[in-house]
Amino acid sequence: PLTLEEVRMLVELFYLPYHHGTLAQELLEHFRWLRANSLSVGVPGTAPDACGGTRWRGRAQSFQLLCAQTCRLHSRFVSTASRALLYDLHPYLWDIRNLLLAASAFVLWLGCQSITAPILLGRDAEPWACRGGLFGELQALLPVGNSCDLFYHPPPLFPSSQLYVLRPLLPLDKVGAVAWRGCSEVALGQAGLQAQLSHALALAARLLGPFLSLSPEYTFVLEDESGPCGYAAGVLHAEGFLQQRDNSWLPAMRHKYPRDLGAGGPALGQEAVLFFHAEPLAVPPPVLRRFPSLVQLGTAPRVLDVGPSRSLALCLLSALRANGSRGVFCQVSDADRQQLSFYSKLG
């Protein structure tokens, strides 16, 4: 059964309409302070502001721990609560869990950046656009908080106790290297592709290579107890990214994977190699003017709960919005029913 401490946490998250319990107040205070003081991060240890950076990281760690406790509470509640109680309260706890996954990863991402521009909130939303309570206040603190259509989604019919972790992908560390391989497997699995080891790297490079090579700072990874199970990759300025991809990245890939490399092999290997030698489709200029940023997301087939997928999207969009993006687009083949279905479920 739930412990007394876990019941107290549950009550404090949903205390009174205009008054939060201790846990909820701590979450809000930490998040407000971390967002407002994010410029103090990334300074060298000998710099005058080193104390500010140390303090920021200390509060970020406290916020991460509170978020992790809440995510564990959701998992425990699904596993132990009576069915009647579970179906009454789960939608609220599920909402908070998903929002804290995004907020926690966003704070981790802030700790890896040195943002020199203010975090933009855009136009104020109408009062009815944001929900009340802790969820509404946390939502308003995310840079995309006024985009109310991003935050509403019905909870799953069958609640899952699966624990998830969402964080930025750091390509240079060992954990990042493992996550990169896992994200590649996720991308292949979501596309319905199964490849031999000899062709897996070419397929992974085709799906995620440009993002990891040219815009690694906007990449996030979702993990469950079995390892990486989702990814989100983005580009702040898509026009320059696409030009750089076509002028430098693609020629390097063509040299690495010559046209005749896939000849005589499986069709999937041939397709992966030929992709690098095909002329990429141009994005219409009106699209780039209105939606200057590019995004790509995916989750493994085993992720049946749409909540963590939406957390991935919220985190990536918040990171792009924090640096001034005013709109995003994604590129999907009209024949790729799986990807079209995935993005449609995200709304």
From TrEMBL:
Tree of life domain: Eukaryota
One Gene Ontology molecular-function label: beta-N-acetylglucosaminidase activity
GO BP, one annotated term: glycoprotein metabolic process
Sequence intervals crossing the membrane: none
InterPro entries: Glycosyl_Hydrolase_84
Protein name from the UniProt record: OGA GlcNAcase
Organism: Sakesphorus luctuosus
Gene: Mgea5_0
